[in-house]
Amino acid sequence: MRFWPAVREALAGSHRNYTEGGISRAITLLAIPMVLEMVMESLFGISDMFWVSHLGKDAVATVALTESMLTLVFVVAMGLSLSTTAFVARRIGENDPEGAAVSAVQAIAIGSAVSVLWGALGLVFAPDLLRLMGATPAIVQTGQRYTAVLLGGTVTILLLFLTNAVFRGAGDAAIAMRVLWLANIINIVLDPCFIFGLGPFPRLGVAGAAVATTIGRGCGVVYQLSVLLRGRGRVVIRAPQIRIQGQVMWRLMRVSFNGMLQFLLSMGSWVALVRMIALFGATALAGYAIAIRVVVFVILPSWGMSNAAATLVGQNLGAGKPERAERSVWLAGLYNMVFLGAVAIVFLIFAPLVVRLFTNDPAVLPVAVACLRIVSAGNVCYAYGMVMVQAFNGAGDTFTPMIINLFCYWLFQIPLAWTLSHSGMGANGVFLAIPIAETGIAVVSILVFRRGRWKRVRI
Fold this sequence. Notes:
Number of domains: 2
Number of strands: 0
Number of helices: 17
Structural class: mainly alpha
Shape: globular
């Protein structure tokens, strides 16, 4: 496979049938735009925080508190996205584009209903929600409009997630990428305009960041819907399909529920780890925050690879080719292992140089270096683990990853972190529990994957 022609084809939007031909090329064509999509998603928060930080600590605190409130929204969005991708991929693999469109309509309907309720609560009770999160009167005064606008625009968050999940499941990863590029460019341009009142724009302060983000996401959603309705992708929604189909919706919600629990267990365990690290002081917490931000950003390509594996699993199971689906997962895991293994070597050797890009604090530096090295030591296993988990999700088996997360995070990682950190290792004990638990997830996932139950899941 020639790499650069594949890159050009991936960015332009490939029309290949991913249930036939070379698996390596299929992974490349799907993974490249998926990686760029995830990079764009991460820029929403970075852009807002960059400009809001010029407004003072109360404005920054408003953003942090509101993002905490949005955690549940993202849990719902990601859970629904998993099932949506699985359903659409399965129907596309079965050569049933109409069934894929029906699944897309049901997902969009569920997301719209949830977001209307959430948005109404956010618009009406924004000040009360901030107080509930522990905001001071000054923060409530500064940030209530920001919170109201961002929570009121929940529909743009959910639909952006869900419709891109439709495109990913269909194999139109390049369209999903373009949606996030469009939304982010608009957000980045409008952020300073609305925050500081540049030119004809009103000066809205911190609320301007929420307005810019919501407009950016809203434009992305409009573009998504235009693609679906005008037939410019593999999934086309036509008038007769725009109706509620109870049976499909119920199956979608059932699979989504396990997906939501899966993410809730994962996110909750990270919150618990942060709480443990906080016991060892601000220095330990700062070092952890820096190291994890570096790790999360660098492994974005791995999530693209994992999402590609999920799409290939769904489509190949739909096409009646379970063995090809399995080969796709092993190959994606191998590529992911090579990539994250190389990243681990770089971090193990050059961790001090990497950390100094973010801090020169003599107290924080050694903690961040230790955390980066310890966490990176588990990269090879983590590479396979994340691909396996997404493979289950792509098959529509969201129950298995949920159970794995419950046992490996809550019944293993959390007790292990507490034991190690209170047996003389301090914060390093918490850091060490992360690669150990991720290795456990990889081993358990591989063993369960090899049993092949996921091949027989019907959705």
